[in-house]
Design goal:
CATH class of the largest domain: Alpha Beta
CATH architecture of the largest domain: Alpha-Beta Complex
Radius of gyration: 21 Å
CATH superfamily of the largest domain: Oxidoreductase, molybdopterin-binding domain
Helix content: under 10%
Oligomer: single chain
CATH topology of the largest domain: Sulfite Oxidase, Chain A, domain 2
Distance between the termini: 24 Å
Bound molecules: ligand MTE, molybdenum atom
Strand content: 35-45%
Largest sheet: 6 strands, mixed
Length: about 350
């Protein structure tokens, strides 16, 4: 890749860091190694005045403080979050936005209150269609001044796995991950998991906010209205083997037996198969670890490689229970979303 990264892209990349791929070794990603994506600024929030307002097409609007949310029955789940733009910078031409290569992922243990009970207590109107989640961060995007907000169809919002998280890895949320409260929608791409959540609004019509109607749509060209990006496509990543060369980060491995390890995940079904590929030819099956503790957490895998001297390219590929798998080549789209083409790891064996 030689394609000059612009100052704007560099500025975004320096604010929004990825997860170093060697951190695939941890079952639960330490909070500081989890990837980060913040469209605008981290808002200033004081817990003593912060409230979650629940209203719109409901019978009993409510306003909850953090203690009231913490006092509710809690759930804890490991959930893999991945940015819908992961893989964007591997597309040609490169859509100009946060230039992720492959590292916009993490698997944290989130704790919070199930959303469904909150909505049920509020009494949803019969003709409700969607639920809008609004954060406290504000900015301008596509020439539209806005507060970050995203809607979910009512039936997705009512899924029992969806919750309002106030802890990440058994600690209060860090400012950058949405303190004091964020939405967690297991299986969906990152943009759905609204941080700094302050308002839940039930609506009767399809929400026309920027992040649903313009952003996060898979469009073949500028005139295509496109379709909304929703669930995470399957992906496997490996911990790059051996040692890196500082500047290029290309890998150097000693000849002989190498154990390759990594993780695989999908929002469409449990991971059922991971394969490792060598030099555009042979593929062989990796061994899967036990199923993860929660259905939308990543699954570990390992594979043996008898490395012979010379230049090689390793790949890995996941297949989930729905039969979905990964293409070898990226599929280009305007926003640079959901590029789950197989990882390519060039290795020099000496
Ligand atoms: N309020 C708000 N929520 C947000 C965002 C944001 O910019 N503002 N970014 C979204 C996107 S695009 C992603 S990928 C995830 C990233 O979550 P993380 O930074 O905790 O990893 O948060 C989502 N929630
Ligand atoms: Mo994202």
């Amino acid at each position: 890749m030689t394609d000059g990264i612009s100052r704007e892209e560099l500025q975004l990349a320096a604010r929004n860091h990825g997860m170093p791929l060697e951190a695939l070794r941890y079952d639960v990603t330490p909070a500081g190694l989890h990837y980060l994506l913040i469209h605008y600024d981290i808002p200033e929030i004081h817990e003593d005045v912060w409230r979650l307002d629940v209203g719109g097409a409901v019978e009993r609007p409510s306003s909850l403080d953090l203690d009231a949310i913490r006092a509710r029955p809690a759930v804890t789940a490991e959930v893999t979050l991945e940015c819908a733009g992961n893989g964007r910078a591997l597309l040609e031409p490169r859509p100009i936005s946060q230039p992720w290569l492959l590292e916009a992922v993490g698997n944290a243990r989130w704790t919070g209150a199930p959303l469904r009970n909150v909505l049920e207590e509020t009494g949803i109107a019969d003709n409700a269609a969607e639920v809008v989640f609004t954060g406290l961060d504000r900015g301008i995007e596509g020439e539209v001044e806005q507060t970050y907000e995203r809607a979910l169809p009512l039936e997705e919002a009512m899924r029992p796995e969806v919750f309002l998280a106030y802890e990440m890895n058994d600690q209060p949320l860090l400012p950058q991950h949405g303190y004091p409260l964020r939405l967690v929608v297991p299986g969906w791409y990152g943009m759905t998991h609204v941080k700094w959540l302050a308002r839940i609004h039930v609506v009767r019509e399809s929400f026309a906010g920027y992040q649903n109607a313009h952003g996060y749509r898979w469009r073949t060209d500028e005139d295509d209205p496109g379709t909304g990006v929703t669930r995470i496509s399957p992906r496997a990543l490996m911990i790059p083997p051996g040692i890196p060369e500082f500047l290029t980060r290309s890998r150097i491995v000693e000849a002989g037996r190498v154990e390759l390890r990594g993780r695989a995940w999908s929002g469409l079904g449990q991971i059922e198969r991971v394969e490792v590929g060598l030099d555009g030819g042979r593929w062989w099956d990796a061994e899967l670890d036990a199923a993860p503790p929660d259905p939308f957490a990543w699954r570990g895998w390992r594979a043996r490689w008898d490395a012979t001297r010379g230049d090689h390219v390793l790949r890995c590929r996941a297949t989930d229970a729905s039969g979905a798998t990964q293409p070898t080549d990226p599929v280009w789209n305007v926003g640079g979303y959901t590029n789950n083409a197989t990882q390519r790891v060039p290795v020099l064996v000496r």
